[in-house]
Write a sequence for this structure.
């Protein structure tokens, strides 16, 4: 199968997750292209789409909204997997909160979505400028002060397993 793995990322950690998922899916025999959502011109050559976004200020990035809007029709026909990379998932009941508040369900409802994964991301405060720190402090909607999540929380084992499950689903014969 020809698979597009596409991402919306500000600081690069979601892009690295995309590369890792792409690698895992390719290792299992699929033809994979990994691209920033802003670079995707067409979904014409792809059989499936895996798309991911970082979260900021309690919402996924506007670039992924734009991508979904641009390819709404194709994404309703091809199988789609989505992940969100964030820190809120690290808090108690975090995954539930992410699913309830960070997902634009209106936009999702017409997609041929197979699975939505909520993954822990990376927040390196030394890479965050003062403006972003202000945004984080004012708009992060968790219970814990966000500076408590200064680090790389990506769980590569979970990411690899998720990629492997996508590859396996794509290898199943279509009924
Ligand atoms: C300014 C700023 C705001 C953020 N807001 C949120 C948020 O509201 N909820 C959340 O779970 N994570 C939030 N995060 C954490 C990011 O989603 C997380 O660090 C993600 O892995 C970053 O991905 P990237 O490196 O691809 O940009 C924020 C990070 C920054 C720098």
């Amino acid at each position: 199968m020809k698979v597009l793995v596409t991402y919306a990322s500000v600081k690069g950690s979601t892009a690295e997750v995309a590369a890792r998922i792409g690698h895992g899916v390719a290792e299992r025999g699929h033809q994979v292209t990994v691209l920033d959502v802003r670079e995707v011109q067409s979904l014409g050559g792809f059989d499936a789409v895996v798309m991911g976004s970082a979260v900021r200020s309690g919402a996924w990035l506007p670039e992924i909204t734009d991508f979904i809007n641009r390819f709404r029709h194709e994404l309703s026909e091809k199988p789609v997997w989505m992940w969100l990379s964030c820190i809120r998932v690290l808090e108690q009941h975090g995954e539930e909160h992410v699913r309830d508040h960070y997902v634009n369900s209106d936009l999702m409802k017409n997609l041929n979505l197979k699975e939505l994964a909520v993954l822990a991301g990376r927040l390196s405060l030394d890479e965050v400028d003062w403006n972003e720190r202000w945004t984080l402090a004012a708009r992060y909607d968790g219970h814990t002060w966000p500076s408590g999540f200064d680090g790389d929380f990506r769980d590569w084992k979970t990411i690899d397993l998720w990629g492997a499950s996508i590859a396996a689903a794509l290898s199943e014969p279509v009924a």
Remarks:
- Residues 156-171 form the longest helix (16 residues).
- The chain has a mean pLDDT of 95.
- Residues 99 and 124 are 24 Å apart (CA to CA).
- The chain has one domain: 2-171.
